[in-house]
Design goal:
three-stranded antiparallel beta sheet; 141 residues
């Protein structure tokens, strides 16, 4: 489960086609939806430079809960994203379950997803860096 600590971020960044594929895999399993995806608001807080907590504002989230072979999972995703919340809840329940075959499949799939997202972020960063101005090399007039 340690390898899954960034799972919410990966599911948030994943392409819609990947989410649909994961959802279809999930729907082929014996699941019980304990809580249908529903939106809600949570308060985001931060610490200022004096270590005093203050509220940044509310964040819209989607929450869903699933039971898979007596293992429960909860998915909380930023935004109105019911499919992503369901997929995250299923993966969380799956990782707690005894279905090692499916668990290994999903871990492999999540690893590929992590690599793809990382590769895409590196490409995006390289594109952004190409447009960066180096003020030290600019000539003064």
């Amino acid at each position: 489960m340690e390898d899954m600590k960034d799972l919410g971020i990966l599911i948030t960044k994943a392409d819609k086609k990947i989410i649909d594929k994961l959802k279809n895999l999930m729907l082929n399993e014996k699941i019980t939806i304990l809580r249908e995806p529903a939106t809600g608001l949570i308060m985001a807080t931060a610490l200022d430079s004096f270590k005093t907590e203050f509220c940044l504002g509310e964040i819209l989230v989607t929450v869903a809960s699933i039971e898979y072979y007596n293992s429960k999972g909860c998915g909380i995703i930023i935004g109105d994203e019911p499919d992503r919340a369901l997929v995250l809840a299923f993966i969380m329940a799956l990782m707690k379950s005894n279905n090692n075959g499916l668990k290994k499949k999903f871990i492999k799939y999540i690893s590929l997803l992590r690599e793809t997202i990382s590769k895409n972020e590196k490409i995006e960063k390289a594109i952004i860096l190409k447009t960066k101005v180096n003020f030290e090399t600019m000539v003064k007039r």
